[in-house]
Fold these 3 entries.
Entry 1:
Amino acid sequence: MNSILRTVVVVTVGCGLAWGQTYPRIAGVTVEGNRFVDEATILAIAQLRVGEQLDPRSDVLQQAIRNLWQRRQFADVRIVVDRITSLGVFLKIIVREVPRFNAVEIRGNKEISLEKVKEAVGKTTGELMPYYEVALIRQRVLKLYEKEGLLFADVHVDTSTAKLPGYVDVIVTITEGDEYKVRKVVFDGARHVPTDELIGALEENKPKRWWQFWRSATFDRKKFYEKDIPAILRYYHSRGYIDADTLATEFAIDRQEKAIDIRIALQEGTQYYIRTVTFDGNTVFPQVLLEQRLGIEPGSPANLDQLEKNINGNEEQTDIRSLYLDNGYLEATILYDLRRVALDSVDVAVHVYERDRFTIRRVDIAGNTKTQDRVIRRELFTRPGDYFNRAAIIRSVKGLGVLNFFNPEKLRPDVRRVPGAPNQVDLIYQVEERSTDVLNASIGYAGQFGLTGSIGVAFNNFDISNPLLGGAGQVFSFQWDFGQGNRFQTFSISFAEPWLFGKPTSVGFNLYDTRYFWNIEGRRTGGTVNLGRRFRFPDDFFRGDWSLIYQRQVEYTQTLEPARTFDEVSVLQTISRTSFDNLIFPSSGSRFRWTLQASLGAIGIGSSDFLKNELQVEFVNPLLQIEGFDRLVMYLNTEFGSVGRIGNRPNGVIPLIQYYAMGGNGIAGINVIPLRGYSDRSVGVPGNNNLSYFRQTAELRFALSLNPMPIYILAFAEAGNAWPRLRDADLFTLKRSAGVGMRILLNPIGLIGFDYGYGFDTDNLTGNRSGWNFHIQFGNR
């Protein structure tokens, strides 16, 4: 390019001398070599104007070339003199355009799908394909293989001329190499901390035990440096070795065994202990309270991990900063210094900068297209005029999640400073509606009873004053349960108002007619009136629900002749505490439920005489987050139930429908407790002949998707049994099972479940080991 410019400059200087310092003018400009960019565009970009003098002291030509290069559409740009006439100089812009991407051909990929590699290439037809893009494509594909643990992959990228003029095809040739497993990790210099503890501190790259079937031991170099090395240092810092550091790492590759041995050189340093803890700057809260929140005693090892968490944020939100955030001090900052005062001691100085106390000016709701504002606001624990309270915001988000009206991934409160108001903020709760009206199809194959299930509709966000629009949070449902050969039929209609007159008091009713014909033959017709209230003590997660039940029951003989007919009047009380963050896929919280039902036959009201106690406790604990959301959780459930007589009236009866059965998916009749891995109603005394039961469940759940269609897979282990009397209960005779399953929420159908479980113990129907059993169900069972 410089030689061309020099030629042009010589021409202009020569012409200038010949014309007595009058420099030639541009008489015309043409373009050559363009295919995709039209000539007018190139001329406009070059900004060479006809009539402009070619003064050699100016950089007109250089600037024109720079303008064209900056477009990144050209692989080569030249400006030459086409001809010189008495009118001036005619210039020609010669360009070679950057080729366009046509298609990509992937060769050699086996471990990673074609779609993933194409996504890493990141090019679509018609995009520019400059020369340096070849190196970028190679880099992106290598990163993909590195992410998948194939660190020894080699990628070669080349281009070839496509059939379409001006286009090129990209050929990506991959030599994947082998996937290497971590076989051994050795720590040099670890004298005070056991090697097993250091291996346990590793987050990604560590040897896999034979029984850890859920773990991968694939070596990942990137995660080793990003996660494992910091994890080792955090562990040392938590033990008081605040100067600990890694000196070097070495990888020994065994290509025959496809294994990697990792050697990490450590410098532990001295273990330090806390001598004193002091606070300054705190005027709102006393030092005693801050010391309780800090939770570090003088004389203990200098646990930097605990120190940082208990100052600026721990999982339980019992740290010092949370104390300030929950009391309006939105901009409070807490810093700390470690001062070495001896060979093995440090003093901790905590500096508190409290700043201003903020109040809430407005609480706004955005995104609700169906649910009424008042339904959302009654779940909020933040009010205009209150001091800012982070715990109240978290509690509000959890309450909105339990409603199940909104996409849980979009429940993100926004805190905004109020312009011109130094101590005020606005809260905006952004929600995204999702379908809540359900066509409830609970269908399952229940072994000897064949097809069982239900069909109905449930409007879970109903408005009785405006049924077509809904959005008032009321529940209205109609249900028809059925069984093979009309063995089980139920017609029911129910309504519930969860907030009566704007208070956390629920009212409702249920009318039903049920017929059942198998081990229990009978019919019951009646209704229930329900009343409930959310408590404030011990906390606002507690509530109480009471029901008054009246039903007429007819029990038949095996020949379907009426055996006895009686009336039942009973009172049902449920005390519960629910702190789940979501009802479909809870990732944190617990649920406790104690139910007590007593018939009034013992005092002469009705003929039935029984007392029923049931207790259920559920826990969910998050184990793994992906992109800020809990995806892997552990679910634990324990439940117990028993039925007995209250009085000794000669004509007092325990209705057969109050007896328990166990086994299968739990939808094979009335009062059937599910126990996967066993056939329906085969655990305990077969049929509904048990007055007590116990069941325990552990599930490891992983959410594949939370929105718009919640899908999660699970692995479960269960144990349970049922007994004819409470005094016969023996927890050492529990029937055990394990297996896998999946849950999918399909609106408007509901929750679909598939389970495949193995029963380790005998089936009481056959006397043989239960073995593998498949269970399918529709509905939230």
Note: The two ends are 77 Å apart (CA to CA).
Entry 2:
Amino acid sequence: MGNEEKMMDSKFLEDEIRDGFYIPTLGKRAWAAELIVLQEVDRICSKHHIKYFAAYGTLLGAIRHHGFIPWDDDMDIMMLRKDYEKFCKVAKEELPDGFEVTTFRNHENFWSFMARVVAFPRICFEEEHLEKYNGFPYIAGIDVFVLDYVHADDEKKSERCSFAKYVLAVADELEKMDEKTLGENLQRVASICETEIPEYSTLHELKVLLYERVEKLFAGVKESEAENVTQMMPFGIEKMESAQFFKKYFKESIRVPFEDITVPVPMGYDSILKKTYGDYMHSVRGLAGHDYPFFGTQRKQLQACLDFPIPGFYFDKKQLERKKTEEDRSYRGILPLQLEGLRTSLHEISKAQKNGKNVELISYLELAQQQAIELGTLVEQVKGEGLEVVTALEQWCEEIYQMHQLLNAGEEESIIEKSVSQLESLYEKAAQRLQEEVLSRKEVVLLPYKAKYWDKMKHVYQEKCNEPDCDVYVIPMKCYEKDYLGNFVRLQEDGNYPEDVHCIAEEDFDFALHQPDEIIMETPYDSYNMAVSVKPFFFSSNLQQYTKKLVYIPYFKEDDFAREDERAFYNLQYYCNMPGVIYADEVCVQSESMRQRYIEKLCEFAGEETKGIWQKKIVAKEEYFRDEKADEIVEIPDNWKKIVCRADGSDKKVLLFVTSFGMFVENEKQAILKLKSIIECLEEEQEDFAVLWYAGKQNTDTIGSVKRYWDMVQMEQKKLKNSERIETDHELEVAEKISTAYYGVSGEAAQRMAQGGKPVMILNSEIV
């Protein structure tokens, strides 16, 4: 069953941390473009009954990550020779306009024994292209490798390899040969290949003819003469045993999840991956044998052709000139002036009362009342209700009202004098409370990026809330999806913040009026993220003018990496060489190691002479990036509770049992015996513990051994009365947290539990 082409979910295109590795949105767009190409290949193969399989990093990614390997960005598939030849033949007619199948036959500089299917053979910024390929302008495609049969007879195997090497050497050295040498070599090639070389007009045509002869040598072994298959160039021709696999592994395929589609993998994927990568479920960066990113060279070539820089964020020394805040426009500038106006009016009230000028006195009383109302209104606007300063101002207004009444009633001067004295007392109280409750308090504004990332901002929030005399405002920023042209297209829905966190809407907080002491933001991108954006008001370049201290703390945590990890260091530019880092007064990162990487990358970006700036600005704040998942309350699925909990409510010991279909491919009979013996042992101890069994992700394929595997899992699990099957990744994550021990095939679940200090035993299906 193939995959129907569909638009990529916009959230897929966003920057993401996977397995501790940062993937930028441009990398995600490259993935999305490749998936479009794969869907076309899949459609053609389904229509014409052509078998293909995920290969190399794509196969490893499908099994280990259910998608791309985070630090890899190319896509590989493989086909047996007859399927490859059929595909190359029908693809010319079946592929959409603009697609191209590149081989040595049709491309002048493509001297490889494979094919490459590309969506468009050149860099393209046309709107129709960008819209279809999620804004990715570079050439994207997939590599199609060929599997040929390997002679079971070692002598014939060596002879074929020697012949192929010779013909290939002749083809690659044509330009260095004189006419006589060329003629002699072509005669020998004709003898080896048992066919004459057709007429040719150029050396390029001759080279193509010779490459075709090499291909025929590769394809010259019949299936009946072989037990193994291999990719002849370079592995087969060099007789690399580690790259030869039993042909039975490719007899059938099963489809497994890959991002939001499925891909076919060889039924012997487990043995193939073990032979190729060893403990393949253990993630190791840097295994891919190609440049990263694959479009990096194209980008350099594009820049060389342009007379202007490719759009992006570039460093300018002027960016280090900090914008000045306008404190006189803030409430801290306005309130003291209002208080001073109130004091002046009080002075005039006292003077008019002493001089017996009642008309002036009434006028100043009315002015003072209005001033107190304005002062109290502003205080409540910035700090809310319930403050003692507002109560004092309300009492002030009441006292003025009473004085007004006394004056109208013609009361004695001594009574009026007492009221003036009361006003002076209330003024002192209001002034003191204003200083204590408003002016002397620190204000910190937190701008969380999204609710799902609150676990990072939470530590900062708790720290600031615990500071004395500090008011903390949490203002979640609205996030908008962008189209391929950078336009805002829709507002993203955000999740819920914890109930004990009071959030303020963007429009309800006046930054110019507050001028907070500190603004802490989580996004560094400003307008330079291709997938999402906040409103321009919340760009770091703008926020700088509203605070004396702008702080940037990444909303994510990735694994620390060494400078030698070229891929992680390359991607660092997408969140380090950004406005938020440049404009912030302080940048908090997860560790001293990461601080050094930031400094190194910024020196590349802005020049070595700026090193001192970054050394001062960037600080390691490990406490902000604490991982508290271990302390989270685990929600156990209802159907598990009856087996993992005793009648008295206490918890049983839980065994996480993990098997895979790969056990069945190499030796199905042996695997069946092993599985049955395990279940018998578990049955005997069922009263003491529960079993959570993860058998992999079931799919719709029903080929023989796959179906027998799932039938057996279903049958054997029924024998375990205190057991439940794990169906989803989320359930597996929960199982890892609540399980006491692990028994099963090698994999990331085993690694995670071992890292958590839990007992782990790896299943060996060869020992019964």
Note: Residues 179 and 185 are 10 Å apart (CA to CA).
Entry 3:
Amino acid sequence: MIDVHLISHTHWDREWYLTREQFRLRLVDLVDRVLEMLRADNGYAYFHLDGQTIVLEDYLEIHPENADEIRAHVRSGRLLVGPWYVMPDEFLVSGESLVRNLALGHRIARSFGGSMPVGYLPDLFGHVGQMPQILRQFGLDNAILWRGFGGSQAEYWWESPDGSRVLMMHLPGEGYCNATRIALVPDQMVARTEAVIEREAARSRYGVVLLMNGVDHIEPQDTIPALVSALQARSHRIRHSTLPAYVDAVRAGASSDAASLEVVKGELRSGEQYAPLLPGVLSARTYLKQANARVQNSLERWAEPLSTWAWMLGERYPAAALQYAWKVLLQNHPHDSICGCSIDAVHEENMSRFARAAQVADELIDRASTAIARRVAPAADGKVRVVFFNTSGQARSGVVEGFVDLPFGNAEPHRHVDPEALDAPVVFYDSAATLKRAATAGGQDIPLQVLDITEVVSWVKSRYETPWALHARRVRFAAFVDLPACGFASLDLEVGTAPAAAATGPVTMAERTVENDFLRITVDPTGSAAVFDKRTGKRYESCGELLDEGDVGDEYNYSPPIADRAVTTLDLRNVTVEATVAGPLRGELTVRGSLPVPQAATADRAARADATVDVPVTLRVRLDAGSPCAEWRVTVDNQARDHRLRLLFPTGLRDVEETLSDTAFGTISRPARREPPATIRTEVPVTSYPMQSFVACPVDGGAAVYAEGLNEYEVLLG
């Protein structure tokens, strides 16, 4: 007999086509209505708040007086919350962020009475291969999902690369809303429901049917108890149910049939003819992705490790501040936020949150590094001791960059400051002070390069004195340093008024050329760069080339116009190439020009306009001593509409069959080509893929590209 579970729920996009505050008021209406219906106890048994707990915070900020009632319903199992804090995108955030999201969701759900024991992933735009492993670590042995997989059956095993396996329930082609409209017309609701039951029963191996009565932002339907009663009267085995009960029923069926259930392995990023994948969000509003990467890196790689080291030395561990920064960051990780597919006002608020989280992270980094550095013995008179940290578990030797502020005057001349009130003494230098040489703490000279000097107002902050403004020379420098794993290295910088003598070193410059022991980079007058690998004798042409194309798609997908015209680096106007940093440790060539880009799409969006606008472009090509990596920094002042701009690098190969890139807690190989199906029913499959920080051609002679906050790549063949 068919076992039917009717699930009442909402899918709550916290911000999307409305702002967070506009949606919050709708959320208040929804939760108020849910509480009324649960309070009435007229047969309406359960409601699901979309697997998130942030909705509880948003609601209770308006109605804190209802907290106890919500807790009572969560404890009784009638109101289901968690396991997530927010419903994220899995590819645009780090693996650590996914873990923190689930951890915070569980923590909040437990404070209300318990987390829903379901790996609920209803609307995420594909799934990372490590998700079964992550869910298992949180005690979840199941997943309910929709996008990213094209199998038509309802039940599968899903396995991570490490062998972790969860029972996967695949939502129907309609997704999480196959029963949204069944009860809207009373005299048709039984027939409508029976049609859905028949369709879903054909998908289930175990005769367990899931009816999802809900969709984005809708309120509960009070006709559900009557519908259930009417169907029971027609001998249907149906109940107003919960997702955990549905999972239990499927698990019971699978317990005697586990060996024959199909196993799906790894990343789920296909099935476009079953449900849209929406891959264009990987590069929509790239500034969001870049801001997110910066904050994630600050928290994961610097604030937390340095704070731990400072705690080991006796400082207080800033647990609450770190939790706050993570929480603010996670509020930008819902799939409609980090994906960049919402209205402008939403993403303006996203940037404000990124700034807040970054400010906390930066302050914690400064506090922890200062606490550690002050335990390092000071340098001799006339020298400044600086400390560089390496929070990685791997030692490294290479060029590091830093700056020191050399005070030369009081910017508040009428103010008196007691030296005893300062946390550390202030030393004044000559108004022409600079750095002359660098040495290790043991006295061994090391290569030093002054990159630039600017005059600034530097603020001295102390616990017992208000900030004190000083005139200072900010000297930005590069040095070649050996950094131990999970440790630090200190340098002594000699200060003087005469600049360091010009030195030769491993990085040399010639006209439009920079080279070190590994690479030679030459930029031609058009702005195109070639990289010669001295180790292999291989030459990579047209590195860092710009490719601008029309885009008449939407916020979710790229779509080329029928008639397009590409604009490339070869079209740059008024090109200049100059050596802006000239060794001996770092060399940099700067290319400036303007790209004549079509102003917008034509009115019918079939082509690009004939009129063009100049888009100023600056490309900085950098090479450091001892590094086999060439670095590009690209700045674009966008003046055009309806286009996408890509940066191209040669693979160094005649043909590429697969790529290797990083993903949450691992790496993944993907095919360079995907053959489209003969008939496109829903969405055209694309050959662009997500990356966290790198993509490589994993064969001899292939190249690798590393990037921060650029999450989409594609291999262009031919």
Note: The chain has a mean pLDDT of 96.
